[in-house]
Design goal:
This protein is of the alpha/beta class. It has a domain at 170-298: 3-Layer(aba) Sandwich (Rossmann fold), CATH 3.40.50. Helix content is 46%, strand content 12%. The chain contains 13 helices and ten strands. The protein has helices spanning 2-6, 8-16, 26-35, 43-47, 50-73, 87-99, 132-142, 185-202, 217-226, 237-242, 254-261, 289-298, 306-327; strands spanning 78-81, 102-106, 126-129, 149-152, 170-174, 205-209, 230-231, 246-249, 264-268, 280-282. Strands 7-6-5-8-9-10 form a six-stranded parallel beta sheet, sandwiched between helices. A four-stranded parallel beta sheet has the order 1-2-3-4, with helices on both faces. The radius of gyration is 22 Å and the shape is globular. It starts with a helix and ends with a helix.
């Protein structure tokens, strides 16, 4: 246990994410690649690669020192980022801690208890959640392990809401990362069945938005061809949202973003690990045109006027400004 504690920081970087240290120097990346073949074993076995761990630890410490000097030389008072958990984010936030720089992190997605492992314990001084419910969930689930001040300022992404597009019904299907090393045939089959049902039962146009972490694009392209599906050609989420009537997915944070944009969102129960706020939850075999039309007619998400949107934006800016002022070191 003493060995694990000694290398806790670097083990989190090299082993916790199972990814190369992309933002670090080439030397660190090479050390990390030398260790990764051992990752399939248990943690003590990985840490037991003593010489490599010592070299990697020294390399990362060196780069933290460089970043610390850079922050001090430029009189940085606060860093604000959506990344305090990946390798690069950990280096930056650790350097900021040592330099006495205020650290604020904005949630990169809608996080609930099952996915806390990738983001907590937080390395920022202040962590800004997407919703009030998310803030309360995080505080409850973290309990005595909460080392970060968790705040809520209002939904942090302001989308200019648009009118519903004309018929036919257009659906954005948000896929999870399920190809290549993340191979998940069960989810591939579920998403394939869902897409086929939407086209056959609902007479809908379906566009698939791949997960941003999807790297096995050739495998994904084959899956799309096999199910005769069209991949979204837009990089920006708001472009996809503007042309659809409904958004359907599993655990994607896009479901929350869709609601805030003014679109109804549906979570497929068989693909869900936890529920989102303001999102309909339906079983796969219950999704048909009648149900979707009823959801669109009920519209639990009402359109927001330009005036209300501007007022909402100003409230969020004011809340954020207040948090930054309060959290700034004296």
């Amino acid at each position: 246990m003493a060995v694990i504690k000694k290398y806790r920081f670097i083990v989190d970087l090299a082993v916790g994410s199972r990814l190369p240290l992309r933002a670090l120097c080439l030397q660190s990346d090479q050390f990390c690649r030398a260790i990764l073949p051992y990752v399939e074993g248990d943690l003590p076995t990985v840490v037991g690669v003593g010489e490599q761990m010592e070299k990697l630890n020294s390399a990362v410490e060196h780069e933290i020192g460089i970043m610390q000097k850079l922050l001090l030389a430029n009189s940085v008072k606060t860093i604000f980022s959506t990344d305090d958990y990946r390798a690069s984010g950990q280096v930056l936030y650790e350097a900021a801690r040592r330099a006495g720089v205020n650290r604020v992190a904005l949630a990169h997605g809608y996080i609930q208890h099952p996915t806390l492992v990738s983001c907590f314990p937080g390395r920022s001084d202040t962590f800004i959640a997407w919703t009030k419910q998310q803030k309360e969930d995080l505080e409850r689930d973290l309990g005595p392990f909460k080392s970060t001040d968790i705040q809520y300022i209002g939904f942090p992404k302001i989308f200019p809401q648009s009118q519903m597009p004309p018929a036919p019904m257009t659906i954005l299907l948000c896929a999870c990362a399920m190809f290549g090393q993340r191979l998940d045939k069960v989810r591939q089959d579920l998403f394939g069945t869902l897409a086929a049902n939407l086209v056959r039962k609902c007479d809908a146009r379906v566009f698939v938005r791949l997960h941003p972490k999807e790297r096995a694009l050739d495998d994904a392209a084959q899956w799309l061809r096999r199910h005769q599906l069209t991949q979204s050609g837009f990089a920006r989420l708001e472009d996809d949202l503007s042309r659809c009537h409904l958004v359907i997915g599993g655990n994607s944070s896009v479901l929350v973003e869709a609601f805030e944009y003014g679109r109804e969102a549906i979570q497929v129960e068989e693909l869900a690990r936890f529920e989102f706020e303001n999102v309909h939850v339906l079983r796969l075999n219950s999704i048909n045109s009648e149900v979707l039309e009823r959801i669109l007619r009920s519209r639990m998400n009402k359109e927001i006027s330009a005036e209300m949107l501007a007022a909402k934006r100003e409230i969020i800016r004011s809340n954020l400004r207040e948090i930054l002022i309060k959290s700034r070191p004296s």
